[in-house]
Amino acid sequence: MSRPLVRRTLLALSLLFALPGIAALALVLLPPPSWEGWRFALLALEFSLLSALPALFGLALALLVRGRWGGTLAGANALLLVLALVPSAALWNTARTEDAPLDLGAYTAGPATDTDREPLTTTYHRVDGESLELDVWEPAEPSGGPLPIVVNVHGGADDLPQSLLPRWDTWLADEGRVVFEVDYRFFPDGAWRKSVADVRCALGWIHENAAEYGGDPGRIAVTGQSAGGLLALLSTYTDEVEPSCDTEVPDVSAVIAWYSVTDGTSDAPIPWRQRHSPVGDELLESSERMVGGTPEDLPQEYEAMSAIHRITADTPPTLVITAGHDLFLDPEDNRRFVARLDQAGVSHDHLELPWTEHMFDLNWGGFASQIARHSVNGFLHEHLDP
User: Fold this and answer.
1) How far is the C-alpha of 158 from the C-alpha of 286, rounded, in Å?
2) Model-level pTM?
3) 328 SS3 class
4) From the DSSP assignment, how many helices (H) and strands (E) are in the chain?
5) What is the per-residue pLDDT for 383?
6) 185-217 residues labelled b (16+ CB within 10 A) or e (exposed)
7) Which helix (H) or strand (E) holds 255?
C-alpha cells in the first residue's frame, strides 16, 4: 500500500472515530428535536466514558499522520476525549464531597428496569371505575420486628403503572425496609388534585395495613421521581387536599424528591434547552391541560400545586436530588426550594449531581445512581431507620 493511501486511510479512520463524540456532544448540549432525541442525550451522558474510547482511538491514529490534517484531527479527537471525561470527572468530585464510594466495575451494570423477584400487588382503592393498585416489596431475607416503610410514587410523562424501576424498590427493601410502590390517577385534565388525593389515600391505607406486611406504621418515608416527586411533596407538605378514600393520612418521617419541579408559577426558571425544543412545547401544553389554563390565567392554582409555596416549619425532613443538566428542570428551581427549606428551619439535604439528565436513575450502575444510593441510605438511616 502506498504511503499517500495509508495516510488517507488513517485520516479517514480518525475522522470516523470522531463522529460518535460529535454526535454525543450535539445531543447533550443542544435542544432535543424530539422525545427520542432526549432519550439519546440521556444515554450519551450516562455512558459518556464509553464515548471516550473512539476519541482515544481517533487521536492515536491522527498522531500517526504528519501535516495539517493530522494535527487538526488529533486536536479534535483530543478535545472530544476531554469532553467525554468531563461528566464522570465531575461526578467523581461530587462523590468525594459526599464521601460516597464509586465502583468503576459497576458502571455497566445495566438498567434499573429489571430485578430479581416479583412484588405482591394489591388494590388499595377504587375510584371513578378505576382500580388503584400498589406493589409491596419486602426484603429478600426475613428481618425481625416491624420494619420502616418507604412509599414510592412513580413519575412519568403519561399514565404508567407502578414499579417502573423495580431494582430501586428491591434495593430499598433489602436495606431493611418494606416498600410500597403506588399508582394513582395521572393528573386528569383540569383536576390535578385528584392525583394528590390518591397518594394521600394510599398513605392512609398503608398506615392502616402496614402490620400485615411487617411494616411499622410509625415510620414512613415518601419518595418519588419527577412528577412522583412533586406528588410526594404535595401529599405530605399540606393537608389541604382530602384523600380520595375514607382514611386518616399519617404524618411522615421523611420525604425524598428526585429531580422534581417545585415551582409551577410564572416566576419559575425554565431550562434553555426546554424553551427551544418541541418537547418543551408539549410539556407546556400538558401542564396547561392538567391545571385547566395558563399560569397567567390561574396564578392561584399554579401556586397551590407548587411545593415551594407549601413549606412551613412543620414540613417533614426532606432530601432533594437534583439532576444538574436536566431538560425538564432548571437546577435553580431546586436551589430556591432548598433555600426556602433552610429559611423555614426544615431539616434537609440537597444532592446536586452535575452533568446528569432527568431519569439518570434508569442507569443502575451509573456514577450518579451510585452516589444517589449513598445519599438516600444516609438520609433514611438518619430520619427513618432505627
Assistant:
1) 10
2) 0.95
3) coil
4) 12, 8
5) 97
6) bbbeeeebbbbbbbbbbbbbbbbebbeebbbbe
7) strand 254-258
